[in-house]
Amino acid sequence: MEWTRSETLAHAAPGCNTCLGLGLRIGRNETTHPCNCVLRAIFRACFEHFRDCVSRERYISKVTLDPLPGKDRRGAWGRKSEEFSADFCLISKRTLTPPEYDIFKYHFLLGADWKLCCRKLNMDRGNFFHAVYRIEQKLGRVFRELEPYSLFPIDDYLHGPVKGVRSCLAEGDVAPVRPPLRAA
Ligand SMILES: [Zn+2]
Question: Would you say the C-alpha torsion 105, 143, 61, 82 has a positive or negative sign?
Fold first, then answer.
């Protein structure tokens, strides 16, 4: 996917020294890359939503019917909170190296602070925070770039991208709605 300024601007840290708050940095051959501050912000937004999902009373989570884009108008039933939490954990496990995943598990999933993590993982404070930054950047990028269903933007994950539905209506092959009628 191509990262554009209109997307990165909203998530960039205003005081970032690398991108000056624009969210993009220019690489070799004039290619544009998202700034690390944007990737970390994406990770943190997904992590906040994950925490929100798992802390909600899970037995009253709503079952939703979501329309599927395209000609198939049936829609899909799902429990969005559970799906998001499961995807968050599975994608993280798949993306990170085993030592990174250990840090992710203790710090983000189990909520251990840096002191406890450093003792448990036998690391010093500097290396721990470097690793946390690296994990946030790696996951932020994957959460956004994952295809066909990215975790971020979270609204698109939960309700489906509005754009996809619009483009299929523009094809001009939309069948008129015919309610089922009993044969006379
Ligand atoms: Zn930046």
Answer: negative
- Assessment of whether the complete model's pTM goes beyond 0.90: no
User: Ligand 1 centre and the CA of 73: distance in Å?
Assistant: 41
- Between the CA of 110 and the centroid of ligand 1 the distance, in Å, is 28
Tell me, in angstroms, the distance from the centre of ligand 1 to residue 6's CA: 14
Distance 8 CA to ligand 1 centre (A): 9
CA angle 170, 172, 174 (to 5 degrees): 100
Q: Spell out the CATH class of 5-160.
A: mainly alpha
128 touches 108 (CB < 8 A): no
Query: What distance in angstroms lies between residue 58's CA and the mean position of ligand 1's atoms?
Result: 36
**Ligand 1 center to 17 CA (angstroms):** 7
Q: Rounded to whole angstroms, how far apart are CA atoms 141 and 35?
A: 10
165 Cα to the center of ligand 1, angstroms: 33
Three-state DSSP at 164 gives: helix
Q: Which residue is associated with the tokens 């309700």?
A: 159
Residue 161 pLDDT more than 90? no
Share of the chain above pLDDT 90, in %: 58
For residue 115, how far is its CA from the centre of ligand 1 (angstroms)?
A: 28
pLDDT interval class at 163 (50, 70, 90): very low
The pLDDT of residue 174 is above 70:
no
* Domain regions of the chain by residue span: 5-160
